[in-house]
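Review box. Two proteins, two foldings.
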Amino acid sequence: MLHRRLCLLISIVWLTACVNVPDGCTPVSGFDQQRYLGTWYEIARLDHRFERGLSNVSATYAIREDGGISVMNRGFDTASQRWDSAEGKAFFVESPDVAFLKVSFFGPFYGSYVVFELDTDYRYAFVSGPNRNYLWLLARTPKPGPAVLERFKAAAVARGFDLEELIVVDHTPPSSD
Protein backbone atom coordinates (compact mmCIF):
# COMPACT_ATOMS: atom_id res chain seq x y z
CA MET A 1 0.00 0.00 0.00
CA LEU A 2 2.80 2.42 0.88
CA HIS A 3 4.55 1.54 -2.38
CA ARG A 4 1.39 2.31 -4.36
CA ARG A 5 0.92 5.67 -2.61
CA LEU A 6 4.55 6.58 -3.17
CA CYS A 7 4.27 5.72 -6.87
CA LEU A 8 1.10 7.81 -7.14
CA LEU A 9 2.76 10.77 -5.42
CA ILE A 10 5.83 10.55 -7.68
CA SER A 11 3.58 10.34 -10.74
CA ILE A 12 1.59 13.42 -9.70
CA VAL A 13 4.77 15.41 -9.04
CA TRP A 14 6.26 14.29 -12.37
CA LEU A 15 3.10 15.13 -14.33
CA THR A 16 2.68 18.58 -12.81
CA ALA A 17 6.38 19.35 -13.32
CA CYS A 18 5.88 18.98 -17.08
CA VAL A 19 3.27 21.74 -17.27
CA ASN A 20 5.09 24.94 -16.46
CA VAL A 21 6.58 27.99 -18.14
CA PRO A 22 10.35 28.43 -18.42
CA ASP A 23 11.71 31.55 -16.71
CA GLY A 24 11.72 34.45 -19.15
CA CYS A 25 9.02 32.98 -21.42
CA THR A 26 5.85 34.89 -20.71
CA PRO A 27 2.85 33.43 -22.54
CA VAL A 28 1.21 35.79 -25.02
CA SER A 29 -1.88 37.44 -23.55
CA GLY A 30 -4.79 38.55 -25.71
CA PHE A 31 -4.42 35.24 -27.54
CA ASP A 32 -7.13 34.44 -30.11
CA GLN A 33 -7.45 30.68 -30.47
CA GLN A 34 -9.65 31.01 -33.58
CA ARG A 35 -6.88 32.86 -35.40
CA TYR A 36 -4.32 30.29 -34.25
CA LEU A 37 -6.25 27.31 -35.63
CA GLY A 38 -5.21 25.75 -38.92
CA THR A 39 -1.85 24.61 -40.25
CA TRP A 40 1.53 25.85 -39.10
CA TYR A 41 4.89 24.78 -40.54
CA GLU A 42 7.80 24.01 -38.27
CA ILE A 43 10.65 26.25 -39.41
CA ALA A 44 13.18 25.52 -36.66
CA ARG A 45 13.38 23.44 -33.50
CA LEU A 46 15.76 22.26 -30.85
CA ASP A 47 16.69 18.66 -31.56
CA HIS A 48 14.81 16.06 -29.55
CA ARG A 49 14.04 12.38 -30.02
CA PHE A 50 10.34 12.79 -30.89
CA GLU A 51 11.12 14.57 -34.16
CA ARG A 52 14.62 13.37 -34.93
CA GLY A 53 15.11 12.79 -38.65
CA LEU A 54 11.85 14.46 -39.69
CA SER A 55 11.55 17.02 -42.47
CA ASN A 56 8.51 18.82 -43.87
CA VAL A 57 7.01 19.04 -40.38
CA SER A 58 3.64 20.70 -39.86
CA ALA A 59 1.08 20.98 -37.10
CA THR A 60 -2.64 21.43 -37.66
CA TYR A 61 -4.88 22.69 -34.87
CA ALA A 62 -8.69 22.42 -34.70
CA ILE A 63 -11.39 22.78 -32.03
CA ARG A 64 -12.43 19.59 -30.25
CA GLU A 65 -15.98 18.84 -29.12
CA ASP A 66 -14.86 18.95 -25.47
CA GLY A 67 -13.57 22.52 -25.87
CA GLY A 68 -9.94 21.53 -26.23
CA ILE A 69 -7.81 21.75 -29.33
CA SER A 70 -6.87 18.78 -31.49
CA VAL A 71 -3.26 18.64 -32.63
CA MET A 72 -2.12 16.72 -35.70
CA ASN A 73 1.64 16.74 -36.17
CA ARG A 74 3.01 15.40 -39.45
CA GLY A 75 6.52 14.99 -40.81
CA PHE A 76 8.47 13.05 -43.39
CA ASP A 77 10.88 10.46 -41.95
CA THR A 78 13.88 10.68 -44.24
CA ALA A 79 15.35 7.34 -43.07
CA SER A 80 12.24 5.26 -43.78
CA GLN A 81 11.04 7.46 -46.65
CA ARG A 82 7.51 7.66 -45.26
CA TRP A 83 5.20 10.15 -43.60
CA ASP A 84 4.72 9.93 -39.82
CA SER A 85 1.98 11.58 -37.83
CA ALA A 86 0.99 11.96 -34.20
CA GLU A 87 -2.40 13.04 -32.93
CA GLY A 88 -2.73 14.88 -29.66
CA LYS A 89 -4.96 17.14 -27.64
CA ALA A 90 -4.37 20.45 -25.91
CA PHE A 91 -6.17 22.45 -23.25
CA PHE A 92 -5.61 25.94 -21.89
CA VAL A 93 -3.90 25.96 -18.49
CA GLU A 94 -5.13 29.39 -17.38
CA SER A 95 -7.67 30.90 -19.79
CA PRO A 96 -8.26 30.85 -23.57
CA ASP A 97 -6.77 34.33 -23.98
CA VAL A 98 -3.40 33.28 -22.52
CA ALA A 99 -1.21 31.20 -24.86
CA PHE A 100 -0.23 28.63 -22.25
CA LEU A 101 -1.56 25.16 -23.00
CA LYS A 102 -0.93 21.64 -21.86
CA VAL A 103 -0.62 19.14 -24.69
CA SER A 104 -0.70 15.35 -24.68
CA PHE A 105 0.21 12.77 -27.28
CA PHE A 106 0.48 9.94 -24.74
CA GLY A 107 -2.62 9.36 -22.65
CA PRO A 108 -2.62 11.19 -19.33
CA PHE A 109 0.88 12.68 -19.77
CA TYR A 110 0.92 16.41 -20.56
CA GLY A 111 3.65 18.85 -21.42
CA SER A 112 3.67 22.60 -21.76
CA TYR A 113 3.03 24.48 -24.99
CA VAL A 114 3.88 28.13 -24.40
CA VAL A 115 3.53 30.68 -27.20
CA PHE A 116 5.87 33.43 -26.00
CA GLU A 117 5.89 35.55 -29.15
CA LEU A 118 3.28 35.87 -31.87
CA ASP A 119 3.07 38.49 -34.57
CA THR A 120 -0.16 40.50 -34.79
CA ASP A 121 -1.18 38.81 -38.06
CA TYR A 122 -0.60 35.29 -36.68
CA ARG A 123 2.01 34.54 -39.37
CA TYR A 124 4.68 33.19 -37.01
CA ALA A 125 4.87 31.94 -33.43
CA PHE A 126 7.74 31.27 -31.04
CA VAL A 127 6.89 28.30 -28.81
CA SER A 128 8.60 26.64 -25.86
CA GLY A 129 7.92 23.51 -23.89
CA PRO A 130 8.13 23.16 -20.09
CA ASN A 131 11.84 24.03 -20.04
CA ARG A 132 14.63 25.30 -22.28
CA ASN A 133 15.10 21.89 -23.96
CA TYR A 134 12.06 22.42 -26.20
CA LEU A 135 11.76 25.30 -28.64
CA TRP A 136 10.00 25.79 -31.98
CA LEU A 137 9.54 28.45 -34.61
CA LEU A 138 6.23 27.95 -36.41
CA ALA A 139 4.99 29.87 -39.44
CA ARG A 140 2.01 29.84 -41.76
CA THR A 141 4.30 29.26 -44.72
CA PRO A 142 7.21 26.80 -45.00
CA LYS A 143 9.54 29.65 -46.02
CA PRO A 144 8.82 32.75 -43.91
CA GLY A 145 12.11 34.45 -44.78
CA PRO A 146 15.45 34.93 -43.01
CA ALA A 147 14.32 37.95 -40.96
CA VAL A 148 11.79 35.82 -39.05
CA LEU A 149 14.42 33.16 -38.29
CA GLU A 150 16.89 35.80 -37.08
CA ARG A 151 14.24 37.42 -34.89
CA PHE A 152 13.42 33.96 -33.45
CA LYS A 153 17.08 33.24 -32.67
CA ALA A 154 17.54 36.60 -30.96
CA ALA A 155 14.36 36.16 -28.90
CA ALA A 156 15.40 32.63 -27.87
CA VAL A 157 18.92 33.66 -26.84
CA ALA A 158 17.51 36.61 -24.87
CA ARG A 159 15.39 34.10 -22.93
CA GLY A 160 18.31 31.81 -22.15
CA PHE A 161 17.90 29.09 -24.80
CA ASP A 162 21.06 27.38 -26.05
CA LEU A 163 20.78 27.22 -29.84
CA GLU A 164 23.69 24.83 -30.42
CA GLU A 165 21.20 22.01 -31.21
CA LEU A 166 18.90 24.21 -33.34
CA ILE A 167 17.69 22.54 -36.52
CA VAL A 168 16.31 24.50 -39.45
CA VAL A 169 13.66 22.17 -40.87
CA ASP A 170 13.93 21.15 -44.51
CA HIS A 171 10.72 21.75 -46.43
CA THR A 172 11.85 20.40 -49.77
CA PRO A 173 9.03 18.14 -50.98
CA PRO A 174 10.08 14.47 -50.80
CA SER A 175 10.57 12.77 -54.13
CA SER A 176 7.70 10.58 -55.27
CA ASP A 177 9.92 7.81 -56.69
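Next protein.
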Amino acid sequence: MREDSPVSHQPNGAAFDLVLLLHVACVVVGVATTVTSAATASRLRRLTERASPLSEATARYFAPGVNWAGRVMYGIPVFGFALLAMSQGAYALRDAWVLSGLSLFALLVLVAESILWPAERRLQIALADPMAEGVAPKVGVLGDVRAMAWSALACLGLLLAGSALMVAQP
Protein backbone atom coordinates (compact mmCIF):
# COMPACT_ATOMS: atom_id res chain seq x y z
CA MET A 1 0.00 0.00 0.00
CA ARG A 2 1.25 3.49 -0.77
CA GLU A 3 2.22 5.55 2.28
CA ASP A 4 0.73 8.74 0.84
CA SER A 5 -2.59 7.02 0.22
CA PRO A 6 -5.59 8.12 2.30
CA VAL A 7 -6.80 4.52 2.22
CA SER A 8 -5.71 2.69 5.37
CA HIS A 9 -6.61 -0.87 4.37
CA GLN A 10 -5.97 -3.47 1.74
CA PRO A 11 -8.65 -3.77 -0.91
CA ASN A 12 -11.07 -6.59 -0.26
CA GLY A 13 -14.41 -7.96 -1.29
CA ALA A 14 -15.60 -10.85 -3.38
CA ALA A 15 -15.18 -9.04 -6.72
CA PHE A 16 -11.61 -7.96 -5.91
CA ASP A 17 -10.74 -11.48 -4.76
CA LEU A 18 -12.20 -13.00 -7.93
CA VAL A 19 -10.24 -10.64 -10.19
CA LEU A 20 -7.09 -11.30 -8.16
CA LEU A 21 -7.67 -15.04 -8.57
CA LEU A 22 -8.02 -14.61 -12.35
CA HIS A 23 -4.86 -12.47 -12.43
CA VAL A 24 -2.90 -15.15 -10.56
CA ALA A 25 -4.43 -17.92 -12.70
CA CYS A 26 -3.11 -16.20 -15.84
CA VAL A 27 0.36 -16.15 -14.28
CA VAL A 28 0.14 -19.83 -13.32
CA VAL A 29 -0.97 -20.79 -16.85
CA GLY A 30 1.85 -18.65 -18.26
CA VAL A 31 4.41 -20.39 -16.06
CA ALA A 32 3.04 -23.81 -16.99
CA THR A 33 3.11 -23.06 -20.72
CA THR A 34 6.65 -21.69 -20.67
CA VAL A 35 7.92 -24.65 -18.64
CA THR A 36 6.21 -26.97 -21.13
CA SER A 37 7.74 -25.08 -24.07
CA ALA A 38 11.24 -25.29 -22.60
CA ALA A 39 10.89 -28.98 -21.74
CA THR A 40 9.45 -29.86 -25.14
CA ALA A 41 12.21 -27.97 -26.94
CA SER A 42 14.78 -29.87 -24.89
CA ARG A 43 13.09 -33.17 -25.75
CA LEU A 44 12.97 -32.24 -29.44
CA ARG A 45 16.67 -31.30 -29.40
CA ARG A 46 17.57 -34.76 -28.11
CA LEU A 47 15.35 -36.45 -30.70
CA THR A 48 16.80 -34.30 -33.48
CA GLU A 49 20.40 -35.07 -32.50
CA ARG A 50 19.63 -38.81 -32.59
CA ALA A 51 17.39 -38.62 -35.68
CA SER A 52 14.78 -40.49 -33.62
CA PRO A 53 11.05 -40.55 -34.32
CA LEU A 54 8.88 -38.08 -32.46
CA SER A 55 7.05 -39.36 -29.41
CA GLU A 56 3.28 -39.03 -29.52
CA ALA A 57 3.34 -36.25 -26.91
CA THR A 58 6.00 -34.27 -28.79
CA ALA A 59 4.17 -34.68 -32.09
CA ARG A 60 0.94 -33.53 -30.43
CA TYR A 61 2.69 -30.46 -29.00
CA PHE A 62 3.93 -29.47 -32.45
CA ALA A 63 0.60 -30.08 -34.18
CA PRO A 64 -0.22 -27.06 -36.35
CA GLY A 65 -2.13 -24.32 -34.59
CA VAL A 66 -1.81 -21.34 -32.31
CA ASN A 67 -0.50 -21.79 -28.77
CA TRP A 68 -3.67 -20.41 -27.17
CA ALA A 69 -2.65 -21.51 -23.68
CA GLY A 70 0.41 -19.27 -23.97
CA ARG A 71 -1.77 -16.32 -24.98
CA VAL A 72 -3.56 -16.54 -21.62
CA MET A 73 -0.63 -14.44 -20.37
CA TYR A 74 -2.34 -11.43 -21.97
CA GLY A 75 -4.85 -11.66 -19.12
CA ILE A 76 -2.15 -10.67 -16.63
CA PRO A 77 -2.20 -6.91 -17.35
CA VAL A 78 -5.93 -6.94 -18.13
CA PHE A 79 -6.77 -8.25 -14.67
CA GLY A 80 -3.94 -6.17 -13.19
CA PHE A 81 -5.52 -2.96 -14.48
CA ALA A 82 -8.87 -4.13 -13.13
CA LEU A 83 -7.25 -4.68 -9.73
CA LEU A 84 -5.79 -1.17 -9.83
CA ALA A 85 -9.22 0.25 -10.62
CA MET A 86 -10.86 -1.78 -7.85
CA SER A 87 -8.20 -0.95 -5.22
CA GLN A 88 -9.94 2.26 -4.13
CA GLY A 89 -6.68 4.21 -4.32
CA ALA A 90 -4.54 1.71 -2.41
CA TYR A 91 -2.54 1.05 -5.59
CA ALA A 92 -1.89 3.33 -8.53
CA LEU A 93 -0.34 3.08 -11.97
CA ARG A 94 2.39 5.50 -10.88
CA ASP A 95 3.62 3.12 -8.14
CA ALA A 96 7.13 1.96 -9.00
CA TRP A 97 6.32 -1.74 -8.49
CA VAL A 98 3.32 -1.47 -10.85
CA LEU A 99 5.37 0.27 -13.54
CA SER A 100 8.17 -2.28 -13.07
CA GLY A 101 5.66 -5.11 -13.45
CA LEU A 102 4.30 -3.57 -16.64
CA SER A 103 7.85 -3.22 -17.97
CA LEU A 104 8.56 -6.88 -17.25
CA PHE A 105 5.31 -7.82 -18.98
CA ALA A 106 6.20 -5.73 -22.05
CA LEU A 107 9.55 -7.53 -22.23
CA LEU A 108 7.76 -10.87 -21.82
CA VAL A 109 5.46 -10.10 -24.75
CA LEU A 110 8.41 -8.96 -26.86
CA VAL A 111 10.30 -12.22 -26.26
CA ALA A 112 7.24 -14.46 -26.68
CA GLU A 113 5.89 -12.77 -29.81
CA SER A 114 9.22 -12.20 -31.55
CA ILE A 115 11.15 -15.36 -30.66
CA LEU A 116 9.27 -18.10 -28.78
CA TRP A 117 6.00 -18.40 -30.70
CA PRO A 118 7.51 -17.82 -34.17
CA ALA A 119 10.08 -20.57 -33.46
CA GLU A 120 7.25 -22.89 -32.41
CA ARG A 121 5.36 -22.12 -35.63
CA ARG A 122 8.43 -22.77 -37.78
CA LEU A 123 8.98 -26.08 -35.99
CA GLN A 124 5.33 -27.03 -36.55
CA ILE A 125 5.85 -26.52 -40.26
CA ALA A 126 9.16 -28.39 -40.31
CA LEU A 127 7.79 -31.34 -38.36
CA ALA A 128 4.54 -31.58 -40.31
CA ASP A 129 6.32 -33.39 -43.18
CA PRO A 130 4.46 -36.72 -43.46
CA MET A 131 7.45 -38.30 -45.28
CA ALA A 132 9.82 -37.84 -42.32
CA GLU A 133 10.23 -41.02 -40.30
CA GLY A 134 12.50 -39.38 -37.77
CA VAL A 135 13.54 -35.89 -36.91
CA ALA A 136 16.48 -35.33 -39.22
CA PRO A 137 18.71 -32.38 -38.45
CA LYS A 138 17.16 -30.11 -41.08
CA VAL A 139 18.58 -26.71 -41.78
CA GLY A 140 17.09 -24.28 -39.28
CA VAL A 141 15.43 -26.88 -37.04
CA LEU A 142 18.19 -26.94 -34.45
CA GLY A 143 18.35 -23.14 -34.46
CA ASP A 144 14.60 -22.92 -33.91
CA VAL A 145 14.80 -25.54 -31.15
CA ARG A 146 17.50 -23.52 -29.39
CA ALA A 147 15.55 -20.28 -29.89
CA MET A 148 12.43 -21.89 -28.50
CA ALA A 149 14.24 -23.32 -25.47
CA TRP A 150 16.13 -20.14 -24.54
CA SER A 151 13.19 -17.80 -25.14
CA ALA A 152 10.89 -20.06 -23.08
CA LEU A 153 13.41 -19.90 -20.22
CA ALA A 154 13.61 -16.11 -20.60
CA CYS A 155 9.82 -15.86 -20.48
CA LEU A 156 9.76 -18.08 -17.41
CA GLY A 157 12.33 -15.85 -15.70
CA LEU A 158 10.33 -12.74 -16.53
CA LEU A 159 7.12 -14.31 -15.21
CA LEU A 160 8.82 -15.35 -11.98
CA ALA A 161 10.45 -11.93 -11.54
CA GLY A 162 7.11 -10.22 -12.09
CA SER A 163 5.43 -12.58 -9.63
CA ALA A 164 8.05 -11.87 -6.98
CA LEU A 165 7.63 -8.14 -7.59
CA MET A 166 3.85 -8.32 -7.23
CA VAL A 167 4.08 -10.33 -4.01
CA ALA A 168 6.73 -8.05 -2.46
CA GLN A 169 5.14 -4.76 -3.64
CA PRO A 170 8.25 -2.78 -2.63
